[in-house]
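Record 1 of the preview.
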Amino acid sequence: MAGHTAIRGVKTASERFAGAGDTYCIEAMMQDGKALQAGTSHFLGQNFAKAFDVVFANKENKQEHVWATSWGVSTRLVGALIMTHSDDQGLVIPPKLAPVQVVVVPIAKNSEQMEAIRSYITPVLSDLRARGIKVKFDDDDQKKPGWKFAEYELKGYPVRIAVGPRDMENGTVEVARRDTLEKQVMQTTDLADKVEHLLSAIQDNLFQKALALRERYTRAVDTYEEFKVAIEEGGFILAHWDGSAETEEKVKQETKATIRCIPLAGDRTPGRCMVTGAPSTRRVIFARAY
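->
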């Protein structure tokens, strides 16, 4: 899966879903360095089917308990999205997920100016919509432009276009991007092209920013002393673990950190458990989590 910042892995026995044979997960790092289990998929085997006597007829027409899974990709992902990208001004939504990608706010003193702006900007709106871009033209005359600016900043819409009488004179609009809060004046010529490129740039910037945060706060330690210092700084700590529930519980009790996952990818070099010194097949990810 291209373009992801969450780590894919498998939960340890003590962290997996109760009754499941395996729990696969995606672990995301939030802006404060804590981990969030952003989504899970549980292989339930036949455990629940046997408990509730759920059966099916197999190819030999014999009764067999069903093999079940549970898909845990839900509102957690919405929380992860909000916590990963947002700022003190409100939501920041990646363009590919935004319900409205571009909002146009007319700055008009009366209905005549409003209609003039509508005529001025309609070709641009049509061009944007023809490209599949989700656009809103906010002509609500009960709310002032400043109120609308604050509202759409709070809602995290990726691009805001403001247009007033002076813009019509100059053949321009003011374009603001939500991720950096930067504004620039653009000519309406080829504006749909420019906005399309801007949406792509915002999408990439949000991804790169989240990836850089994860990489900056992901590091390996070899000793328990190093670990205790590192965990106070937050982030993902890669460390060797002997595979025992006892060691896992000791670390949890002493540091409030848990094994977030055994990564599906990454360094598989064997080593020694940072706590016990016993053999370890590979590093796992420890973190404090929500």
